[in-house]
Automatic annotation (TrEMBL):
GO terms for molecular function: myo-inositol:proton symporter activity. The keyword Transport applies. Keywords: Membrane, Transmembrane, Transmembrane helix, Transport. It is a multi-pass membrane protein. The lineage of its organism: Eukaryota, Viridiplantae, Streptophyta, Embryophyta, Tracheophyta. It comes from Populus alba x Populus x berolinensis. The keyword Protein transport does not apply. The chain crosses the membrane at residues 31-56, 68-88, 100-118, 124-146, 158-180, 186-208, 279-300, 315-338, 345-365. It holds the Pfam family Sugar_tr. This is Major facilitator superfamily (MFS) profile domain-containing protein. It is found in: Membrane. Coiled coil: none annotated. InterPro entries: MFS_dom, MFS_sugar_transport-like, MFS_trans_sf, Myo-inositol_Transporter, Sugar/inositol_transpt, Sugar_transporter_CS. GO terms for cellular component: membrane.
Length: 433
C-alpha cells in the first residue's frame, strides 16, 4: 500500500512523463530497474525449465521414463512460490522491502547453484523449491518497493514495467536455452545461469535505500525524508511527508479497528461490501488467468513442439521463441492500449484468444492421434522383431530405446503386428506416443 492507498494504472501521458522524470532523475530509474529484476527472475524461471527439461530427461533415465518426476520438477517451483509469497508479505512488513528482496535473491541464487550441480533428480527438485521461495518473495515485494520508492505521478508506469520484465525474462530464458543446446552440461548451464539475475539484483540492492514508506512507518522519519529528497523536487518533499503521515495514520486506524493479524484483516475485508466486491473480482481474475492453461504451454512449449514432429531440441527451442516473443509483445500492447480501451475489454479479448488457441491445440492433437497408426506404449518404448526403424537396429542399447530418441519432422518409422510399415515410408508421428 502506498500514499493514498492505491496504485493507479498508467496511461499514455504518464509513460511520457515517466520518460521525462527518469531522464532528469536517473536515481528513480535505478530504483525501479533494480527492484524490477524480481519480475525478470520470475519470467526467466518460467521459461528456462521448459528447455532444460529436454536434456534432464536424457541425463536421468528415471526422469525420461517417469512423467510424475517431470511434472514434479516443473511444479515444485510453483509450490515454493506459494510459500514464498506468503512469507514475503510478513518479511516485507517486519524486515523491510529491501532486506526481503535481498533474502529472495539469496534463495534464488542458492537454488540455481543446487540445480546446476545436482547429481540426482530429487536434488533438482530441492533446488526448484528454493528458487520458488525466492521467486514468490521477489514477485510480491519488488512491485511494492517500486510503488513506494517512486513519484506518485509516474508510479503506475514504473509498476507496469514489472509485467514487461516477467515476459521479457521468459523470452530471455528461451534465448539462453537455445545458446546452450550444444554446450557440455546443457541443462546445468541453463539452470545455473538463472542465478545471474539474482546476483546482479543482490549487488544493486545493497547500494539502494529502504522504502521511504516503510521507514516512516517504523518511525525513522529523518531517513525517509532523506530518501524522498533524492526522488522529489525540494519543494515537494514536505508534501510527500505529509501524505505519508496521513496514509500511515489511516492505515493504523483501520488496523486498530479490525486487528493486525492476517485472519482479522481478511475478516475485515469481507465485512466491507465495497472491499468484498473488489476482492471477489481480483481473486476471480487471478484464478481465471492461472487456470486457463497458458502456464502449461509456457512450461512445456518445447516438449509440445517435439510431439508435433520436430524432435530436434534446438529446433524445438527455436520455435518456442515464437510463443515467448508473442507473450512479451502482448505485454507491450496491453501497456499501450489499456487506458484507451479499458481493462475489462482487453481482459475479455485476451481470455477469449487464449481459450480459443488452447481449444484448437487440443483438437489438432486429438485428431492427429485418432488418425495415426495405433502403436501401444510398450511397442513405442521397445520395438519388436518386425521393426523397420533403421536407427533402432543400429542402436547398441536397444533396451533403452524409445521413439523420441530419433524422431524427426521428416522421419518416423514404426510398426506392429497389425500395421506393417515399409522401410523409408514416412508415417504420422502422433500415434507413437
Amino acid at each position: 500500500m502506498v500514499e493514498g492507498g492505491v496504485v493507479k494504472a498508467a496511461d499514455k501521458t504518464e509513460f511520457t512523463e515517466c520518460w521525462k522524470v527518469t531522464w532528469k532523475t536517473p536515481y528513480i530509474m535505478r530504483l525501479a530497474f533494480s527492484a524490477g529484476i524480481g519480475g525478470l527472475l520470475f519470467g526467466y524461471d518460467t521459461g528456462v525449465i521448459s528447455g532444460a527439461l529436454l536434456y534432464i530427461k536424457e541425463d536421468f533415465e528415471a526422469v525420461g521414463r517417469n512423467t510424475f518426476l517431470q511434472e514434479l520438477i516443473v511444479s515444485t517451483c510453483v509450490l515454493g512460490a506459494i510459500f514464498g509469497a506468503a512469507i514475503g508479505g510478513f518479511c516485507s512488513d517486519s524486515l523491510g522491502r529491501r532486506k526481503t528482496i535481498l533474502v529472495a535473491d539469496f534463495l534464488f541464487f542458492v537454488g540455481a547453484i543446487v540445480m546446476a550441480v545436482a547429481p540426482h533428480p530429487w536434488i533438482i527438485i530441492v533446488g526448484r523449491f528454493l528458487v520458488g521461495l525466492g521467486v514468490g518473495m521477489a514477485s510480491m515485494t519488488a512491485p511494492l518497493y517500486i510503488s513506494e520508492a517512486s513519484p506518485a505521478r509516474i508510479r503506475g508506469a514504473l509498476v507496469s514495467m514489472n509485467g514487461l520484465m516477467i515476459t521479457g525474462g521468459q523470452f530471455l530464458a528461451y534465448l539462453i536455452n537455445l545458446a546452450f543446446t550444444r554446450a557440455p552440461g546443457t541443462w546445468r548451464w541453463m539452470l545455473g545461469v538463472a542465478g545471474t539475475p539474482a546476483l546482479i539484483q543482490f549487488v544493486l540492492m545493497l547500494s539502494l535505500p529502504e522504502s521511504p514508506r516503510w521507514l516512516y512507518r517504523a518511525n525513522r522519519v529523518d531517513e525517509a525524508r532523506t530518501i524522498l529528497a533524492r526522488i522529489y523536487h525540494p519543494d515537494e518533499v514536505e508534501i510527500e511527508i505529509n501524505a505519508l503521515k496521513e496514509s500511515v495514520q489511516n492505515e493504523k486506524e483501520i488496523e486498530d479497528s479490525i486487528g493486525t493479524t492476517t485472519l482479522s484483516k481478511v475478516k475485515g475485508a469481507f465485512k466491507d461490501p465495497v472491499v468484498r466486491r473488489g476482492l471477489y473480482a481480483g481473486i476471480t481474475v487471478q484464478v481465471a488467468q492461472q487456470f486457463v492453461g497458458i502456464n502449461t504451454v509456457m512450461y512445456y512449449s518445447p516438449t509440445i513442439v517435439q510431439f508435433a514432429g520436430f524432435a530436434s531440441k534446438s529446433v524445438a527451442l527455436a520455435l518456442s521463441l515464437v510463443t515467448s516473443g508473442l507473450n512479451a509483445l502482448g505485454s507491450i500492447i496491453s501497456m499501450l492500449f489499456v487506458d484507451r480501451y479499458g481493462r475489462r475489454k482487453l481482459m475479455i479479448i485476451s481470455m477469449f484468444g487464449i481459450i480459443t488457441c488452447l481449444v484448437v491445440l487440443a483438437i489438432v492433437f486429438q485428431q492427429a492421434s485418432i488418425h495415426s497408426p495405433g502403436i501401444s506404449q510398450v511397442e513405442s518404448a521397445h520395438f519388436g522383431a518386425n521393426s523397420t526403424c533403421p536407427s533402432y537396429f543400429s542402436n547398441v542399447n536397444k533396451n533403452k530405446w524409445d521413439c523420441m530418441s530419433c524422431l524427426k519432422a521428416q522421419c518416423s518409422f514404426c510398426s506392429n503386428a497389425e500395421n506393417q510399415v515399409s522401410l523409408f515410408t514416412p508415417r504420422p508421428v502422433f500415434g507413437q506416443f
